[in-house]
Design a protein that fits this description.
The complex is a heterodimer of chains A (about 60) and B (about 750). Chain A has about 60 residues and is mostly helical. Chain A contains 3 helices and no strands. Chain A is about 60% helix and about 0% strand. Among the domains of chain B are: about 90 residues, Alpha-Beta Plaits (2-Layer Sandwich); about 140 residues, Up-down Bundle (Four Helix Bundle (Hemerythrin (Met), subunit A)); about 130 residues, 3-Layer(aba) Sandwich (Rossmann fold), CATH 3.40.50; about 100 residues, Calcium-transporting ATPase, cytoplasmic domain N, CATH 3.40.1110.10. The chains are: A mainly alpha (about 60), B alpha+beta (about 750).
Chain lengths: ~60, ~750
């Protein structure tokens, strides 16, 4: 059972890392807007003219 | 006179490195496309560094280089894109960043982390106890649990401890008192058991209890935040600012918080007066319907007092800002409001009432258990363990979730019906209502004047009247212009202030204005007035034909008759108390077939009447909007005001409904009745749970495993039962419109 001496701190560390990650995301304002970001990924406005994702992919291939 | 320059400095926060920041409430955002459009448009502006729309709260935050640009092009651009935007006054938005919500969420995260890890250890112990765990390992696990639990209880429990301390200090008993006792005893007992190397420790129960209760607390907070941020947006979009007259004579638009007593403010024709003050120059007529309920215009001149919320009609006024002077209407309203608010704070929430019954019973049961076991010959230590386990298992986990869970689901339903709640406990108070008192002006009727549908003009004449009306800033003309949808003003229209507008069209003279201006005889006017006592009349004359009277007034809200009818069928007693004159109130009461009505009521009269009803044992819902209604809104058992109400009334009301229809009042009552029914069910479930659990605990059968199962089981049941309210309430009666 001596292995517990290592395993429990490891388990606590992993859980603690999750907690720290959550607190960081909270502090950086990621929960301020729960509605907008899911739409932002669909916005193509930041692409160059005439470059739909498909065309951009084609250019990369050729 | 052109619109005054706006004082941007009041709305902008400057950072040290020369960057400027501003938050705006934006009206008209309906979907994600609006978000892209605004952000992209703003980012193209020279000097703008960051523009981000918050799609949940409909707010925009912009950062720009203070040297390269200023806020004017930003707001102009939004206007061109078709959005109405108004910056927040940083002094008024206290809740920026939502500090309270983040504190609860942090506590929730910490207790969640702790609950998971302690449960990992506890399950090992429980299975080990059933098989072959050695005492050293168990003790080690207990110590690790203690190491996680103690800081968690201190950190996450703060929220409850603080509230319990405040309650006890003021001699009250709320839900947080038994929670605090339960958590502290569970932790203390477990610590003691750990030191004694005993078999059972209850660290998991203590931490899980905190976790479940914090979930309830956070849901409750989310509900409040959602409605509060909408209320703040609405208040900001109303642009509560005033044109302050500078020393050099120019006018500068400043937010109300930057005005002080003695400042002079300019109010142009057709503008709403935003301050209380004394007129220093100018004469006009003011529409006081939002303040006194009186629909007739009142002439004012130099030295007269005017109140915030009244509408200036035709003259330009210069107003000196005063504090509420003794003996004025505003002073009286404030005084009455204070007294009425005191009365309301005596109301005890259903959850706190439940815990007032519950805490003594449970604590007495625990004490009896202790005494009983000792008398039966048990040593005091194990007897104490059993007694504390009674408290742990009865700790009001389900009770703490029973009411908030229902409130959260119900407030979501209210939101769909376009009702915003100011107070969570409004739901339980709405459910008991049997008498509804309506104010007339602005509540049963629309807040703004509109043209009656029975105007008797041909389409051509109507168009001409509308185009004439565009040239005047008088509220009655504006109502006509709005009703006709006229876009183009007539090029050579001349306005005579206080009388009317005239123009030459196709060689004929067309006039729109006061009846006297168009040569209407007194008899004709009297006759029209008896037919429609709730309307004001604007006369229209084209060429040599006799003038026609256009009734303009604050007519009934959409669905008012149906809603009143439905309320009566549902068994509510309806009354109308109005500050308006008798003829108008009588007419409205007849239209709505309400038998009980009173006119020309002063704020004190309204309160007296409501108190009388309350003394008869009636539960009164007050629906009103004016400044004169504010004290009675606070005096009634529960109150609702329309979104067009004056600020004081909205703050005094328990709920606010949006839009022009009166139907939300009916929906609010229906939903709250169902919500109350589910609350009662949840309380009953909690009682049944305790009736089953307590005998086991008293007999000493409650191990930490049983406590954990019972606690999470009962919490999940009450939460699921609350969600069932959605199905009970059925589908929404109105389309889910964005504000």
């Amino acid at each position: 059972m001596e292995v517990l001496i290592y395993l429990i701190p490891i388990a606590l560390f992993l859980g603690g890392a999750g907690l720290v990650a959550f607190l960081w995301s909270l502090r950086s304002g990621q929960y301020d807007d729960m509605e907008g970001p899911k739409w932002r990924i669909l916005d193509d406005g930041d692409l160059q003219e005439n470059s739909t994702p498909v065309e951009a992919a084609k250019r990369k291939v050729s | 006179m052109s619109a005054p320059e706006r004082d941007w400095a009041a709305f902008v926060t400057n950072t040290d490195d020369g960057k400027a920041h501003m938050d705006l409430a934006v009206d008209g955002i309906t979907c994600a496309a609006c978000m892209y459009e605004i952000e992209r448009g703003l980012q193209k502006l020279d000097g703008v560094e960051k523009a981000r729309v918050n799609l949940s709260s409909h707010r925009l935050s912009v950062d720009w280089d203070g040297e390269k640009t200023n806020p004017s092009p930003i707001v102009d651009l939004l206007q061109r894109l078709g959005y109405k935007a108004y910056p927040f006054d940083p002094a008024q938005v206290k809740s920026r960043g939502d500090a309270v919500g983040k504190e609860i969420l942090r506590a929730l995260a910490v207790s969640g982390f702790a609950a998971m890890n302690i449960m990992l250890l506890s399950i090992s112990i429980w299975s080990g106890n059933a098989s072959d765990i050695d005492p050293e390992t168990r003790s080690f696990f207990h110590w690790v649990s203690a190491l996680i639990a103690l800081p968690t209880v201190v950190y996450s429990g703060r929220i409850f401890f603080r509230s319990a301390y405040m309650a006890v200090k003021t001699g009250r008993l709320n839900m947080d008192v038994p929670i605090t006792i339960g958590v502290l005893l569970a932790t203390g007992l477990s610590m003691w058991q750990t030191v004694q190397e005993a078999e059972h420790a209850y660290f998991d129960s203590a931490v899980m209890l905190l976790f479940f209760l914090l979930v309830g607390r956070y849901c409750d907070h989310l509900m409040r935040r959602k409605t509060r941020s909408f209320a703040e947006n609405l208040a900001t979009l109303k642009a509560e600012s005033a044109a302050k007259i500078q020393e050099d004579g120019s006018a500068l638009d400043v937010p109300l918080s930057k005005l002080s007593i003695g400042d002079r403010v300019l109010v142009r024709a057709g503008e709403r007066i935003s301050v209380d003050g004394k007129i220093s120059t100018g004469t006009s007529e003011v529409d006081q319907s939002l303040v006194t309920g009186e629909t007739l215009l009142q002439p004012v001149g130099e030295g007269d007092l005017v109140y915030a919320g009244t509408m200036n009609t035709y003259g330009v006024l210069e107003i000196e800002v005063t504090a509420a002077a003794k003996g004025t209407l505003l002073d009286e309203v404030n005084r009455l409001l204070e007294t009425a608010m005191e009365g309301r704070s005596k109301y005890v929430h259903i959850a706190d009432r439940a815990s007032q019954l519950y805490a003594p019973v449970v604590h007495a049961a625990a004490l009896l258990t202790l005494v009983g076991w000792i008398m039966l010959g048990m040593a005091w230590q194990p007897a104490l363990v059993i007694a504390i386990s009674v408290l742990i298992i009865t700790c009001p986990c389900a009770l703490g979730l029973a009411i908030p869970a229902v409130q959260v689901v119900a407030s979501g339903l209210f939101f769909n019906e376009r009702v915003l709640l100011n107070a969570g406990d409004a739901i339980e108070r709405l459910a008991t209502v049997d008498t509804i008192v309506f104010d007339k002006t602005g509540t049963l009727t629309l807040p703004e004047a509109s043209l009656s549908k029975e105007h008797g003009l041909s389409a051509e004449q109507l168009e001409l009247a509308g185009r004439l009306a565009l040239s005047s800033s008088h509220p009655l003309s504006q109502a006509i212009a709005k009703a006709t949808g006229a876009q183009q003003a007539l090029p050579d229209a001349k306005e005579s202030a206080g009388k009317g507008v005239e123009a030459v069209v196709d060689g004929m003279c067309a006039k729109l204005g006061s009846p006297a201006f168009c040569g209407v005889s007194d008899e004709q006017l009297e006759q029209a007035k008896t037919q429609q006592p709730d309307a004001s009349f604007v006369a229209f004359q084209s060429g040599d034909k006799p003038a026609q009277l256009l009734p303009v007034g604050q007519f009934m809200r959409e669905g008012a008759t149906e809603t009143i009818q439905k309320l009566k069928t549902a068994g509510y007693t309806i009354e109308i108390l109005s500050g308006d004159h008798k003829g108008a109130v009588e007419h409205a009461a007849q239209m709505l077939s309400v038998e009980s009505w009173q006119a020309a009521m002063k704020p004190q009269d309204k309160i007296d009447h409501i108190e009388k009803l309350k003394a008869q044992g009636k539960k009164v819902l007050m629906v009103g909007d004016g400044l004169n209604d504010a004290p009675s809104l606070a005096a009634a058992n529960v109150s609702i005001s329309p979104v067009s109400a004056v600020h004081v009334s909205q703050a005094a009301a328990d709920a606010v409904f949006l839009g022009d229809s009166l139907a939300p009042v009916m929906s609010a009552l229906t939903i709250s009745k169902k919500a109350r029914w589910v609350m009662n069910q949840n309380l009953a479930i909690s009682v049944v749970y305790n009736l089953i659990a307590v005998p086991f605990a008293v007999l000493g059968f409650v191990t930490p495993l049983v406590a954990a199962l019972a606690m999470s089981g009962s919490s999940i049941i009450v939460t699921l039962n609350a969600v069932r309210l959605r199905m009970l309430a059925g589908s929404s009666t109105q389309p889910n419109l964005e504000v």
